[in-house]
Amino acid sequence: MHKRGMRVLLPMALAMLAIGATDTVRAADAGWKLSWSEEFNAQAVDAGTWGFENGYVRNNEAQFYSNRSENSRPDSGSLLIRALRDNWNGHAYTSASRTTHGKKSFKYGRFEMRARIDVRTGSWPAWWWLPDSGAWPKGGEIDMMEFYQGQCLFNVMDGNGKWYSPRKTVASLGGERWSQHFHTWTMDWDSLKIDLSLDGVLINHFPLSQADGTGPNGSNPFRHQGYLILNQAIGGNQGGDPSGTPFPVDFRVDWIRIHTWSPGVAHVLTVTGGAGSGSYLEGAPVSLTATMAPEGQVFDRWVVTSGAVLPDDAVSASARLTMPAVDVAVQASYRPAGKTHLRSKAKPVASAMASTVGYSVLGRRVVPMVNPGSGHWVLLRL
Q1: What contacts 224, CB < 8 A, 6 or more positions away?
Q2: Co-location of 226 and 374 in the same domain
Q3: Which end of the chain, N or C, is surrounded by fewer C-beta atoms within 10 Å?
Q4: Strands lying side by side in the sheet with 347-349
């Protein structure tokens, strides 16, 4: 996020993309266990974890960072960070930067964030890590998610200020349609490597040995504690000219979850058509996030093809399951947009609507629309 110098640069379809971990055999030595999560479901953001940056902070950015609810607040089960062109107190643009600095520190684990970002000109959102000590650049920097000027970046910067920065253009990911969906950014970080992924696809593999001797006092900057930042910047050195972009510009964070690698018998979760693959200990809650649906289709449901387990919400593109003591395979299925059909094994149930027959599909109630002969059904989340 710091920018000082140039960087080194069908009716029903089952998505069959191989996502996540390449190891498809049972892992018998260790696995991921949920250690901390921030769901942003409360009426207020936890002030014991998340503070604010204030003012004009870095990179000649156009926005003034405030602690106002207009710029940062819980909203519909997510954290909304909103940039405004509002001329508040003489500041042409305002936004928010939330940080765990001085409140909560992190070192090693599987870091996941499900979020939706604004990819219009001038928008510069980021989710990143900085060290508790060692200053910048000696303490290093990890940008798990960063976007500006049409590119998603996956950055690691060593203590000498050298950037390792693979990029993906939004155009290559799906363009405007991609930006309308939530996506999952993941960092797997241990004493040997940092892996940065998007929707389960590895983008940047960084061996920590490349940073040996570059940190404070000749140490490795990535074997130290650090804090997290969530911010929505505008303009500045890299964000582009925001003057022609309609506001607000929103960065919406559904959740952040961190798993730690723990000893014990683990079992492999293989997810196709979504993020979440990996080796997990029995009882660990695991996130499932569907990737962007094929053109003309929408997410339909999660289908468990192996393993005795059910997602907590099989018809939600963002679901969770509790890992059982077996390997599990899950697929994301999609259907044509605008159609909701009954699936197999639908069971008749009594309906609250007189003269109407309802059906239960994976715990959800569906009832026919006005014209039952049309073959269309409406899904009621009861």
Answers
A1: 107, 131, 132, 133, 134, 139, 215
A2: no
A3: C
A4: 347-349, 358-361, 364-368, 377-380
Across-strand partners of 193?
207
Residue 329 falls inside a structural domain: no
* CA–CA distances in Å: residue 368 to residues 188, 300, 301: 45, 18, 19
Summarize pLDDT for 85-124 with one digit per residue, the tens.
Answer: 999 999 999 999 999 999 999 999 999 999 999 999 999 9
pTM: 0.83
Q: How many domains does the chain have?
A: 2
Structural domain includes residue 97 = yes
Q: Which domain holds residue 252?
A: 13-259
pLDDT tens profile 331-350: 999 999 887 644 444 343 33
The residue from 236, 259, 282 where one domain ends is 259
Is the same domain home to 355 and 253? no
Residue 311 has pLDDT above 50, yes or no: yes
Contact 122, 128 (CB under 8 A): no
CA distance 261 to 118: 33
Q: Is residue 319 part of a domain?
A: no
Q: How far apart are CA 150 and CA 117, in angstroms?
A: 12
Residue-wise pLDDT for 355-364, tens only, equals 333 334 444 4
